[in-house]
Amino acid sequence: MSLFKKFVTVGGGTLGSRLMGFARETMMAAALGTGPMAEAFYAAFKLPNLFRRLFAEGAFNAAFVPLFAKEIEAGGIDGAKRFSEEVFGVLFTVLLALTVVMELSMPILMRTIIAPGFEGDKYDVTVRLAIIMFPYLACMSLTAMLSGMLNSLHHYLAAAIAPIFFNVAMIAALAYGLWIKADAVSIAYYLSYAVLVAGILQMLVLYIGVRFAGMSIAFRRPHMTPNVKRLLLLALPAAVTGGVTQINLIIGQAVASMKDGAIASLQYADRIYQLPLGVVGVAVGVVLLPELARALKSGHMVEAESLQNRSIEFVLFLTLPAAAGIFALSDDIIRLVYERGAFHPEATATVAAVLTLFGFGLPGFVLNKALTPGFFAREDTKTPMRFTMISVFVNSALSISLFPFFAERGIAAAESIAGWLSTIMLFVSLTRRGHLNIERALVSRAIRMVIASVIMAVAAHYMAVHFAGYLHSGSPALMQAAVLLPIVFASFALYLVIVFAIGGADIGMIRRNMKRRGKAAPAIPEDAA
Q: What's this model's pTM, rounded to 2 decimal places?
């Protein structure tokens, strides 16, 4: 399968999940707005979600995948299966112990780290919601391991569609709460139980996918084998690196808890920019790491260099116009997606401003996903960790400094600046080591992509101004959608016309991505299942 098709497979599944996420957040805004129960739920969910990003997605995409790929190359499927079972035994035991400790520590964690600004009933409800949701981490960590196995075996679909089940469970909980006209506190509890159910569903989907791919995992008594020790040495710094955005978000949330409504505003804006970040960034990160690891382990350095250049090209081609579109249409997007029920026009202005600042950081966040595999595939997780710590320090300092003057806008600006700083450090380090050689043609095309994106943003802005009579707060949602969606599609079509006309992209670029083929996945003997 071509690299482009793999990106499309993962990105398509992620797109489906993100679109359902929009439906979920729209219902959430209508049910809870930016009120205290919305903030309680988002604050409570932030802790298991942070650990999921740190120890599940970050650690396993960074550490498990290259080692699993190495086992396939060296020992075949039997060796990879043995390694997976060793990891599973240790991982399950650690997760069980961590869950017990975190559940008991939840009140103090919420008071000191997660939401120090919460008080009274709001604080009590947040603690109870977090206790309900924290086992979600264990489910998602095991899911990440199963996902890493499938991606290394070139089975991308199951891992790509699994997050859809999270949104199905959440939408069902919201629909039930709205149908019976439950109060805000009850809806928050329904959502918390839905998170736990969603984690179990995703884990089952991935386990079925692994069985379908021809492998099975048996539980082994926890034992620190050399392979497991190597995994832990790689996973610890990778956990920090892979969760840089979430670390910055948790810092921002702790600061934002000092102002009513700030946490919810950041969350609603985050959901919008997570669409391009997820579709493009996750697709590139998930596909590139196993592909790059395979190429390097096989000594195919030219192929590895081409993989990195093609990934950066793909990222810029899609995220630059996405960021430009956010700049031009943030108010109209937020109004269409959220402004109804408990979500008022004043909240629209605030969330739109936050989204615009997140849009500035979008290309940097996604490029980060394309650059970190260049370290992880070489089993270097310490260098990105150091850059991450610098980024976290800068984000913390800026968030604390800017919040008194700009509130949640200051936090969004701090996160975007810190994200770009991390990306720049990754790029410079890879280049200096000779691990990344950017093609001159890619630089030239990138400049032209920027020009096409700026022109697109100007055109989108003027179209929105021209049709402002149909996009204001009093307009029906269907009317707003009937006007805004054509503006979005017309703007992107204009970008494509311009970028091809001025040489920012060409048929050759598309053909290179379509035709580039990776090694086939190893054949799995029948008795391996």
A: 0.66
